[in-house]
Structure formats: C-alpha cells, structure tokens
Design goal:
mainly alpha
Length: about 120
C-alpha cells in the first residue's frame, strides 16, 4: 500500500505519509522495534520537509520515533528525543494538549530506563 500511495499520490502527500506512519507502527507492534525505529526516523525527516516541523503529524511522528527508539533498546536516545519534543510541543500546543502530556510521561519513562541502564 505504501508503494501504491507513493506512486499515485506522491511521496510527500499527507495520505502517503499517514500510510507510512501506519506501516511503521504495525511493524513495531509485530515485534520489530528496530525496523519501526528506522522507518520512523526517515518519516520524521520526510514529514518535516513536506509538512513542516511544527505540523501536528510531524510532532506525532517524532513521538513514535522516540517510542520505538526506546523499545529498540536505546533508552538514552529516546529520552533525548522526548526532551526536544516536549519543548517543541510546549511551544506549539496548548499546555493541556493530550499529546504533550503523553510525551512528558514518556520522557519520564525513558529517563528512568536510561538511568537504570547506566547503573
């Protein structure tokens, strides 16, 4: 489906990006967090270029990138990705936006996991 959307709509079309997002998500859920991380890493770059750094879909993709980075075993990088994302979400969203709250909770999770892996 990703190939079909890319061919018919173009690589930068919002629907193509959304399909890639779903594919990356289900790749991780199927037990391959490392591949999901790589798919999201590329999708962050493409979404930023196509939609802009402050677009809600780009911010959501960055959240997933941090999540799957942590799930792939790199808690310190997940923490760092969350740190940057929390700051950007605070600038873009209202203070009580659910996406910001979830990212802050995940920041705590990956900070604790990174601390535990360093000890």
């Amino acid at each position: 489906m990703v190939a079909d959307r890319t061919r018919t709509l173009g690589a930068d079309h919002a629907d193509t990006l959304a399909t890639r997002h779903s594919y990356a998500h289900w790749t991780g859920k199927a037990g391959d967090p490392a591949t999901a991380r790589e798919l999201y890493k590329q999708l962050v770059a493409d979404g930023t270029r196509a939609l802009g750094a402050d677009h809600a879909d780009t911010l959501a993709t960055r959240h997933e990138d941090a999540h799957w980075t942590g799930e792939a075993g790199d808690a310190a990088t997940a923490r760092d990705l969350c740190t940057a994302l929390v700051a950007d979400q605070a600038r873009v969203f209202e203070p009580d936006h659910p996406g910001g709250r979830i990212t802050r909770e995940n920041h705590v999770r990956w900070t604790e996991a990174a601390r535990n892996s360093e000890s």
